[in-house]
Structures are given as structure tokens and as C-alpha cells.
Design goal:
Blueprint (H helix, E strand, L loop, with lengths): L3 E6 L2 E6 L10 H15 L6 E8 L2 E4 L7 H10 L3 H17 L5 E5 L2 E3 L1 H4 L6 E4 L4 E3 L13 H6 L5 H8 L5 H6 L5 E2 L5 H11 L14 H12 L5 H9 L4 H12 L2 H14 L4 H17 L7 H11 L17 H4 L19
Length: 353
């Protein structure tokens, strides 16, 4: 069976990510099928609303999408496979399509929602989370950065939550996601099948309206997050956290010490630049960044290839970051990431508006 199941049922165009053993991680073929489906339904009068979900190991919900296929990234980078560049160009084009989709688009963000899963859900008209939602942009853990428009949507979180979530890769639940403006509606997971069917029979009229919820742990730490993550540099942020007296500050400092020091600096710059960008410009910047992640240091020498090796290939969880310490990163190491390798008229995403 296909990894993407697309069907029209009643008034809804329904998309099911059907790669449960991989937690619905996106392949290039899946990205192409999603893009073709959304473009076809854009002008189809039968489709009033689009719904998207991910099949879990135990049923039709439970695992939305864990991100992109990082094992493919690793092998393609080492082999010099041009499909690696195609993957990101086409994924970011899909992200832009979702954000600007003219019909209501409801994302059932149940279970794991990370990386590429955020890319196909953050642009949704209705972002539905449950008590099982585990949401994150954890890319600094593999020597990458929060892409798929992460600079755009994280920089628009309240206060300095964007910097905090981008740098730490912290996993958050439903109440936190609503508090961070990364979700709109909390639904009990038992209620998902009924809502899925109602959207088919009633169409756009059944799309839930956003609502506030209680219980956000992020809200408890907002004053400290906003103060610390507004500091000008990664070094200053970590130093302030390490002098803190709370369990939260110590936990956060320890998490940052495990991430790629170089990419932490790149990510802080990314989020702060993106705050004044539109989505298309942010995606073009991220396409430049991801190119450099795999080409500034070719092959196994790059932070991203090393990070994936440690997490998913050898699974030793001991990445050899270069440089190894946050204090060793210089502005001269960060600056090349933000120089586009393409003239504007040849950029792979030049047609985004």
C-alpha cells in the first residue's frame, strides 16, 4: 500500500500518511505525492476541506509525522546524491503550499509531530493536538537547524519561546503547543475518529475554532525564558543558565551543552533574522542553510552527517562536534551559512511568493 493515501470522502479531501514503522517520516516520493494531491484538490469543487493524519502502529491515528528521512540524508550526503537537494527544494515548496492553501486544511497532530511533520502542519487553518502529542523541532540534536519554515513559525511564538524551542529542541505537549501558538485546538484522542468523519460530512462548517487551555508548563517558565533567551549570544544564554539556581535552568543548560555548538549559533541567527522575514524569504534562507549544512564541510566532516551518524546510524549518541565547545565558535564560522550559493534569479525557490 502507498505511503500516502489520498481520497475524497464527502466534502473532504483526506490524506493519510501511511508509513507507521518509520513514524511516517517523509521520503521524497511522499513529498511529491502530497504536493501533487494538494495541487489537484486546490481547484476541485468536490473538496471543501482538506484533512491530514498519520497512521500509528495501533490504528489510524497516533503518530502524525516524525520528520524527514534522516537515514536518507546521511546516505545521500556521503554518496553525493543530487536527490538530497531535490528533497529540500520540494519539501520547502510543499511547506509554502500548505501555508498558502486556499481551502481549510486541518492537521490531526496526534502523537509524534517533529521536523517535517511540523512543516506540513504549521500552515494549517486548524492545528489539532491531543494528550498524546509530542511536538518538537529537535534538529540541533543532529547538527541541523529547525527548517521547513521553522525560522518563520518559531520566531512568531510569543516572547522568546521561539529561540528556546529552536535551540533546545525541547519536546512539548498539547497545552504547551497551544500556549506557544503552534496549535489551535486540543481534542481527546478518543474524539479524533468522530471529528475526522464530521469534517467529511459537514465540510468547513465542522472545523473547530481555536481555544485556550490550561496547564502549560512553558507558561510557568515564560519570565525566565523571555529574559534568558533574549540575550545576544548563545554563549551569554548558556552562561546565564549555568549560573541559575533552578532545576529548569540547569536542565536547559545541560541540554544545550549536548547540541552542536556551531549549529546553536547558526540557529539563533536564523530565528532572529526570520522574525522580520515573510515565509518565502525565510524558506529561501533555509534552503541556503541546508545546502551549507551538507556542503561547507563535505561528506562525513559536516555537523549534520556526524549528528545523524551518532543518533541514527551507529547509535552511539556521542557526536564529535566541531568545534566541540560553545565558547569555541566564532562569528567567522557562522557567517558563511548565511551567504546564498545561488544568485537570486537561479535560487531553487525563486518562484515562491
Amino acid at each position: 500500500m502507498s505511503d500516502v493515501i489520498a481520497e475524497i470522502a464527502g466534502k473532504a479531501g483526506r490524506i493519510t500518511l501511511n508509513r507507521p514503522r518509520a513514524l511516517n517520516a517523509l521520503s521524497l516520493a511522499m513529498i511529491r505525492e502530497l504536493t501533487a494531491t494538494l495541487r489537484a484538490w486546490r481547484d476541485d469543487p468536490r473538496v471543501e476541506v482538506v484533512t491530514v493524519r498519520g497512521v500509528g502502529k495501533e490504528g489510524p491515528f497516533g503518530a502524525f509525522c516524525a520528520g524527514g528521512d534522516i537515514r536518507f540524508f546521511h546516505s545521500a550526503a556521503l554518496a553525493g546524491d543530487p536527490q538530497l537537494g531535490d528533497f529540500f527544494t520540494e519539501e520547502y515548496t510543499l511547506n509554502h503550499l500548505v501555508h498558502h492553501y486556499p481551502k481549510p486544511y486541518a492537521a490531526f497532530m496526534d502523537g509524534i509531530v517533529m521536523g517535517g511533520g511540523m512543516g506540513i502542519s504549521q500552515g494549517a487553518r486548524c492545528r489539532i493536538v491531543t494528550e498524546r502529542t509530542k511536538m518538537a523541532m529537535p534538529e540541533t540534536n543532529i547538527g541541523l537547524f529547525p527548517d521547513v519554515g521553522g525560522g518563520y513559525f518559531l520566531s512568531r511564538c510569543p516572547g522568546r519561546l521561539g529561540e528556546y524551542l529552536a535551540l533546545t529542541g525541547e519536546v512539548i505537549g498539547a497545552a504547551d503547543a497551544v500556549d506557544a501558538r503552534l496549535a489551535d485546538v486540543v481534542v481527546d484522542s478518543d474524539g479524533l475518529p468522530g471529528l475526522w468523519e464530521r469534517l467529511s460530512t459537514e465540510g468547513a462548517a465542522a472545523v473547530p475554532t481555536p481555544h485556550r487551555v490550561e496547564g502549560s508548563k512553558l507558561a510557568d517558565h515564560r519570565p525566565e525564558i523571555d529574559r534568558v533567551f533574549a540575550l545576544p549570544t548563545v554563549r551569554a544564554i548558556v552562561a546565564e543558565l549555568e549560573t541559575g539556581a533552578t532545576d529548569w535552568s540547569r536542565h536547559t543548560a545541560a541540554a544545550l551543552r549536548k547540541r552542536s555548538p556551531l549549529m546553536l549559533h547558526v540557529v539563533l541567527e536564523q530565528v532572529r533574522r526570520a522574525r522580520s522575514m515573510n515565509l518565502a524569504d525565510d524558506l529561501r534562507m533555509e534552503r541556503d542553510l541546508v545546502h551549507h549544512c551538507f556542503h561547507l564541510r563535505p561528506g562525513a566532516a559536516g555537523e549534520t552527517v556526524e549528528g545523524i551518524r551518532a543518533l541514527a546510524i551507529d547509535k552511539d549518541h556521542v557526536p564529535r562536534w566541531n568545534p566541540p565547545r560553545i565558547e569555541d565558535v566564532t562569528p567567522e564560522m557562522v557567517a558563511p551559512f548565511f551567504r546564498s550559493p545561488w544568485p537570486a534569479n537561479e535560487h531553487p525557490l525563486r518562484r515562491l511568493d
